[in-house]
């Protein structure tokens, strides 16, 4: 199926919007007929990235979270951006079990989950400017 589409949204970085981001992503990619497993993988990855923007990027001072999604044929591209505090060492931040908020009961596995559930992930960040997480997944479902 040669289906192309794109969207871009902006929402306030508060926990209530994690569900909104997950649900709207699910609806947006539904024309690709993802399997339940593909759908859950993408929703979970979005959830982790949006949660990070909210709790790490903005900490207790909610700012704007930008989420874009592009569909090109069977491939989904997702970009989640915050203009919060940024990440000092991306490689370290992405390593399994690394967290700067163990006090909040964080597992340090958010990036590990994004990496394993999506085909590709790229993180760019600048201290004091914010963080951009880009993720890609190709939907295998043959009925599309
Ligand atoms: N959007 C972000 N802005 C600032 N720091 C971030 C962001 N996303 C992740 N980080 C940093 O990377 C670490 C690891 O993230 P993650 O793997 O999701 O684990 P957790 O969220 O459980 O700490 C976080 O503890 C935080 O220090
Ligand atoms: Mg996290």
* Overall tally of domains: 1
SS content category: alpha+beta
User: Could you state the CATH homologous superfamily?
Assistant: Histidine kinase-like ATPase, C-terminal domain
Question: How confident is the prediction overall: mean pLDDT?
Answer: 95
**Number of continuous helical runs:** 4
What percent of residues are in strands? 25-35%
The helix content, as a percent range, equals 25-40%
Attached small molecules:
adenosine-5'-diphosphate, magnesium ion
Radius of gyration: 15 Å
Distance between the termini: 5 Å
From N to C, what is the helix and strand string? Answer: EHHEEHHEE
What fold name goes in the CATH topology slot? Heat Shock Protein 90
Shape: globular
The largest beta-sheet arranges its strands as 1-2-3-5-4
Number of strands: 5
Poorly predicted regions: none
CATH class call:
Alpha Beta
> How can the largest sheet be summarized?
5 strands, antiparallel
CATH architecture: 2-Layer Sandwich
Structural notes for this entry:
The chain is α+β, with helices and mostly antiparallel strands and 144 residues long. The protein has a single domain (4-138), classed as Histidine kinase-like ATPase, C-terminal domain (Heat Shock Protein 90, 2-Layer Sandwich). It contains 4 helices and 5 strands. The chain has helices at residues 16-29, 36-57, 90-94, 110-117; strands at 4-12, 64-72, 75-82, 120-126, 130-138. The chain has a 5-stranded antiparallel beta sheet with strand order 1-2-3-5-4, with helices on one face. Helix 1 (16-29) packs antiparallel against helix 2 and helix 2 packs antiparallel against helix 4 (110-117). The longest helix has 22 residues, at 36-57. It is globular. The chain starts with a strand and ends in a 6-residue tail after the last strand. The mean pLDDT is 95. The structure holds adenosine-5'-diphosphate (ADP) and magnesium ion. Adenosine-5'-diphosphate binds at residues 48, 52-53, 56-57, 82, 84-87, 93, 98-101, 106-111, 131.
């Amino acid at each position: 199926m040669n289906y192309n589409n794109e969207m871009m949204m902006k929402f306030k970085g508060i926990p209530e919007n994690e569900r909104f981001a997950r649900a709207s992503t699910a609806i947006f990619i539904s024309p690709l007929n993802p399997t339940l497993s593909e759908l859950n993988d993408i929703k979970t990855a979005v959830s982790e990235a949006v949660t990070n923007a909210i709790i790490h990027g903005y900490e207790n001072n909610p700012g704007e979270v930008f989420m874009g999604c592009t569909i090109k044929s069977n491939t989904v591209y997702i970009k989640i951006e915050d203009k919060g505090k940024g990440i000092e060492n991306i490689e370290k931040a992405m390593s399994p079990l690394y967290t700067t908020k163990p006090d909040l009961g964080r597992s340090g596995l958010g990036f590990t989950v994004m990496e394993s559930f999506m085909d590709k992930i790229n993180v760019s960040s600048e201290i004091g400017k914010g963080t951009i997480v880009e993720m890609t997944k190709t939907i295998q479902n043959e009925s599309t």
